[in-house]
User: What shape does this take?
Amino acid sequence: MADVLWNDIIYTDVLQSDGFVIDYAVCTTYSLDMPSLLSVPFMLGTMTDLTETAMRSPHLILETINKSAGKFAVFCNAGCVAVPQANSKVYSLLEQSVVQVTLQAKGGGFINFHPKVWIIKETNPDTGAQQIKLIVLSRNLTGSNDLDVVCELIGKIGTKPATRKAQVKHTPLVDFLTWLIAKADNRTIRKNMRSICKDIDYIEQFDLTDSPFEDYEFFPMGIPGYDGYTKCFEQSMLNHAAEMLVISPFVDKNTLNQMVSCNPSAKKTLITRHASVTQEVINLFNDGVYTPKEVLTDKVEKDVSVDLHEKVYFIRRNEGNVSYNHLYLGSTNATMNGFRRNVEFLLHLKFAPYKSSYEKYRSELINNSKECMFEQVLSVPEEDSEKEDVTNELMLRRAISAIQQAQITSNDGNYTITIQCQSNRMPSEPVFLYPLGCDGKEQVLADGLTFKDMALDSLTEFYTIRIGDLRRLIKIQTEGMPTDERDKAIFRYFINTKGKFINYLAFMLTDEVEQYILESQQLEKELANDKASSLEQQISTSLYEDMVKMAYKDPDRIASIRRIVEKADETVIPDHFMEMYNTFENVIKQVKRL
Assistant: This one.
């Protein structure tokens, strides 16, 4: 888990702005894995310089989750959450931040929720300045080595409403967020997202300074009022299009045919995955079809296997006697499903005059240097390509849409979960379900399915659903969840000795996290010794001294200790600690009155 967290935390360079703290973040993703979800609280905080050893600390993980509570929301496509290889009870602490988007079937299949966008509100604590950071990318919230694209725009939140022209320009972004709000049941998420919508109306423009671009445009797709095929594909991208460089991992011949038929004599290049290349595709593009090299060398000169996942469209358009260069990037593949069916998001950037050209942009990607990541495909073997079996995927999605809710009841501390679903919407093949981390309780999904004798710290809204060999993680809306008691039980599962309790408090009071991590393991071993009572007294005294120092630097951190004490089991609280802490609290209150 730590390795994945460490890899994903690299994205803090994009998610965080120097001098600003994150007030709230909204993330949209098609697929999701739990270790990457667990990395979000670290991305939102200031834990950017920690080693992998520090990342393994349960105290660090628990406290980071506590501090990030209510500060972010992740929207993902139903049925596209990977089952974690190693289960951890801390995943359940994140369930309130996950919104599973279930879209109804259309024609022969389901509509996918596929955008990859971050909308982040930030505040500068020194100046009070506020801004919205918009990050449009092609990467899902998963661990991946694939080639992706990311672009960020920052808009300063003004003190008065923006002009009508600016508000109209930003309306597609607000409408996209408003559509998301309707998918969220959590009141905190809805409230914070409505606040961001209002903030966007106070942004005159997103800053393009020091960039080659002079204008931007937002293209949400698949939501009411936004037809991606007509508004984006036909009226914007293909309108007077000439040269074109298309980067898309998935393609279909109808979409590509429309692209290359625009000004057929103009140069057209395609970069895609090996699996998407056919001889027909090669014949369509007069300036070549390229795919990633099978093995690339990363920054530390290590050979890694990668694939293509970015979606980028460079297009030169003839507008009267003048031509302009345009860039479209985001989540939409060069397919009819992308432009006509799924919920997607593309950012359109217009280059300033003379800032780029088809040849220049192409040469940055395709050249003779050793760093070039792509190679041309001249032909493909004539053999039947293997078609992906989507039957189980469709049945799984049907089963997910049939599940209505879960209900938890308690009888003398024993908990029972009952699953309610619409039997007439279930697929013909058997579907299996069990709460995350409770593999031994797997049962066939049916209306009225019950999971009995559930431990408090095992209660969760996350479930593993399986059909055949296909397994995914889903979130089921639950009534009767004793959230506070469950979260307390999970805390006690990890903080289950006096040594761990003292370590947790020491962690909360330290400004040197790395030094704390180095000392904590040895401290815990010594406290585990039955003869460690004198050492315990020394540590308690040391904690008291640290609390006195912290009271002057950061009183709020002292107040938060009460929250930890209330969560902990009384058997792990050292002797005389509460007497000491209560005295300390009283002294602090008296000092505040002075």
In short: The first strand starts at residue 21 and ends at 29.
